[in-house]
Specification:
mainly alpha
Length: 260
């Protein structure tokens, strides 16, 4: 892909996203949240691509995947005032509909177009599908890692902020009650991924974020996770007890084993 194709799509992205505004501070806050999230996911995916030795022609394809991965979030929030797909609409599927509606990818190579659409479609699935298209799988894995890395930033900044303004869109309207769900805790010792449908309170949500470690695809993503201190930040807002200590020993052992 030539760089001018990327810049054309990037220009459309900003025109589209900047069209979402509201007199409601809560809505404006979350439009900004998703716009800034998207731009950081672009930075993350370029870092991962650099470690995977992407060429200058391949980098724009990866960056477009990141730029468009959450394009459905804006209409989702406009209509439903939530980012929970289970309570609204699958934001990846809505994103694909928006990409088609505005013919965002119509002028690029058909193979690259299919790869980008696949990455957007698959970025929020519980697991990647079986596919003969190896390049789509690589792009989807990169996107899923880049996305997780920034969601960790968003939530850890939020939970550790002083005098923070409560944001139900980040907390998924979960109650801030003591303890956590034992079944979720047990699943993490099996290196399992927590399902959002099983969340009962905010501590469960924080445990879900810890479990994302087991779904990272590339060592560079694990290294960035460690360097940025996201797990430590999550640990600081979970109950201070031996059960949680044991969990973080397990998670850190997993990370060190993979990196070594």
């Amino acid at each position: 892909m030539v760089r001018k194709d990327f810049f054309k799509i990037q220009t459309w992205f900003f025109e589209y996203v900047n069209g979402f505004t509201s007199d409601d501070q809560f809505i404006r806050q979350n439009y900004t949240l998703k716009k800034e999230h998207t731009l950081r996911v672009c930075d993350n995916i370029l870092t991962i691509a650099g470690e995977l030795s992407f060429t200058s022609d391949e980098l724009p394809v990866a960056e477009i995947c990141a730029l468009l991965h959450d394009i459905g979030r804006f209409e989702q929030f406009q209509q439903y005032r939530t980012f929970m797909d289970a309570k609204s609409v699958n934001h990846a599927e809505l994103g694909l509909e928006i990409i088609s509606r505005y013919r965002v990818l119509d002028d690029i190579d058909p193979v690259e177009k299919a790869q980008i659409r696949n990455a957007v479609a698959w970025h929020n699935r519980a697991a990647l599908p079986d596919s003969q298209d190896a390049r789509s799988i690589v792009l989807a894995k990169m996107l899923r890692d880049a996305d997780k890395l920034d969601i960790w930033k968003v939530v850890t900044d939020y939970f550790n902020a002083k005098n923070k303004i409560k944001n139900e869109a980040i907390e998924f309207s979960l109650p801030d009650t003591p303890g956590f769900t034992p079944a979720i805790y047990a699943d993490l010792f099996k290196n399992g991924i927590v399902k959002t449908a099983h969340l009962q309170n905010l501590n469960d949500f924080k445990l879900l974020l810890v479990g994302w470690v087991f779904d990272l695809n590339y060592n560079i993503s694990l290294q960035l996770l460690k360097e940025r201190g996201y797990l430590d930040a999550i640990r600081s807002v979970l109950p201070q007890n031996e059960e949680i200590n044991r969990l973080f020993i397990h998670v850190n052992d997993y990370i060190n084993e993979r990196l070594n």
